[in-house]
UniProtKB/TrEMBL annotation:
This is DUF211 domain-containing protein. InterPro entries: DUF211, MTH889-like_dom_sf. Pfam families: DUF211. SUPFAM superfamilies: MTH889-like (SSF160363).
Length: 88
């Protein structure tokens, strides 16, 4: 079984929710999620942000769905860290 430990996403989001609320909502998907958000670019209506989610087993589908629910879209998956396990 493999587990996803880190994903780095390039996301286009509206100004609301703000970065704190956006990152907090993602972190609340799982108690072990650690979320960092950095604003890369901003215009009158949107912000381009880099979102880093780290955890023991990240559910990408849940992260992606919540991002869409908050009115944002994923431009790209810029980095992924997946850990495998030994088979017996």
């Amino acid at each position: 079984m493999t587990t996803t430990r880190k994903i780095v996403l390039d996301v286009l989001k509206p100004h609301k929710p703000n970065g704190v609320d956006f990152a907090t909502a993602l972190a609340q998907l799982s108690p072990d999620y650690h979320v960092r958000l950095s604003v890369v670019e901003m215009d009158a209506k949107t912000e381009s942000v880099i979102v880093v989610v780290e955890g023991n087993n990240i559910a990408f589908d849940s992260v992606s769905e919540l991002i869409k629910k908050m009115g944002a879209s994923i431009h790209s998956i810029d980095e992924v860290e997946v850990h495998g396990s030994e088979t017996i």
